[in-house]
Design brief:
By secondary structure, the protein is mainly β. The chain has one helix at residues 13-20; strands at 22-26, 29-35, 42-48, 63-67, 87-91.
């Protein structure tokens, strides 16, 4: 049975997502494709290789916020929303060859 929509997070979400995600090259960068740790539906996270910022100081954080954007059915999901409501921060680190 699908989980109902709820804006929620859990300390384990990032680790569970990272354990099963794969990368796919796109013309604008990379997309992480994996399974939402709350609802088990497939989600995609685009990571552009170029970002234009209007602030003078770039962020030192390597944490990227992730929101479930699945197409699954979730009761009580507000109109215009996507996913099941799960969110977490993913620590992205560049691998050295």
């Amino acid at each position: 049975m699908p989980v109902p929509f709820a804006e929620t997070t859990d300390d384990s979400y990032a680790e569970k997502f990272a354990a099963n995600c794969k990368t796919r090259d796109t013309r604008r960068g990379v997309e992480l494709i994996g399974t939402c740790p709350r609802c088990d539906h497939e989600i995609g996270l685009p990571l552009p290789d170029r970002v234009f910022l209007n602030s003078g100081t770039p962020s030192a954080s390597k944490y990227t916020p992730v929101l479930c954007n699945c197409n699954g059915d979730h009761a009580d999901r507000p109109v215009g929303e996507e996913g099941c409501g799960a969110y977490w921060n993913l620590n992205l680190a560049e691998e050295k060859a």
